[in-house]
Amino acid sequence: MSNKNINWILGEKYNINEDTEKFIKDFQSRIWISYRYNFIPLLPSFDFSFTSDMGWGCMIRSGQMILAETISRHKLGRKWRLSKGKNKHFSLAHKDILKYFLDIPNIDCDFSIHRIVQLGIQYDRTPGDWYGPETISFILKELLDNHKINIKIDIAKESMIIKEKLINFFNENNDSLLLLIPLRLGLNKVNEDYKNTIFKFLEFSQSVGFIGGRPAKSIYCVGHNNSSLIYLDPHTTQKTVSNDLYFPTMNQLQSYHTLKPLYMNYNELDPSLALGFYIKNKEDLYLFLDKIKVLFNESKQIFEIIETFEEYNNLKKQISNCFSLSTEEDTEWELLG
């Protein structure tokens, strides 16, 4: 393939020969959340003394990143960029968003690792345990349900989207929606047949990427370059940032952004992942559903779109008689398609 036909895809398309600066500005504007150390101990009342999540918190960090990107889209818009022009003026418009994710057990840090592991106890996860994409999806939903931001999370349970449920949501709310779709795309490795579908989803304007990665090593995937996945990696350990009058200093700001896109072969993916889509309103929902219909006519279908609650309940009863539907714990699967 000639360079003329190669593009970077981050929901938007950038030609590799002509749009390098635009691509880097877009990628750099994504909030990068990595391992941290020297934070206040997690759950001291449970006799845990973890002051770092190094080695086990990568799915938590990946979940924080997909949520941070969603909130950024909601508050700042898709065109917002961290740096502008040749003088590299850095915007602090997202300062309040960064605060949500600081590693502090504080009311202003609603999506901190402290809040996440606190809720993780309800899902049989304690500090030091690895979280799967489905578990972190449910925890993020609970956190966002109790937050003042006008965004809610819907999770496609059993890899099924209920169209009636989503339409009702927008009929009854002025909120936007983060739709998370936990999937299992294979047994021990990701099924090659789903590659084109995954890549095409990353081209949707509604896409906020997916959380997944290599086995037991989570990453946050934000796009592709026609052949490889482009991702943000939480596996760098940085010192915890303080929430004080000087936050964020330039060093602190730069610790939440990276100029270096990383690339991974599709075949390296763990089969468990969760796709994410930010759907702004009902009009955007119909556009999203129409694009899925077109895509599934052209590429391998990786989840179901169910029209009504009644249809969903009937289908769920039929399937539950055959096998379990968890995307994380079970070792036996019926392959999609």
Describe this structure in words.
With 337 residues, the chain is of the alpha+beta class. 31% of the residues lie in helices and 20% in strands. Strands 6-8-14-9-10-11-13 form a seven-stranded mixed beta sheet. A two-stranded antiparallel ribbon has the order 1-2. Strands 3-12 form a two-stranded parallel sheet. β1 (7-9) and β2 (13-15) form a beta hairpin. α2 packs across α5 and α4 packs across α5 (133-145). It is globular. The relative contact order is 0.17.
Mean pLDDT: 90
Name the helicity range.
Answer: 25-40%
Reading the helices and strands in chain order gives EEHEHEEHHHEEHEHEEEEHEEHEH
- Total number of helices: 10
Query: How many structural domains?
Result: 1
User: Stretches where pLDDT falls below 50 for ≥5 residues?
Assistant: 329-337
Q: If you compute it from the alpha carbons, what radius of gyration comes out, rounded to the nearest whole angstrom?
A: 20 Å
Shape estimate: globular
Look at the helices and sheets and give the structural class. alpha+beta
Please report the total strand number as a whole number: 15
β-strand percent reads 15-25%
What is the subunit arrangement here? single chain
- Cα distance spanning the termini: 29 Å
> Which sheet architecture does the biggest sheet show?
7 strands, mixed
Strand line-up in the sheet with most strands: 6-8-14-9-10-11-13
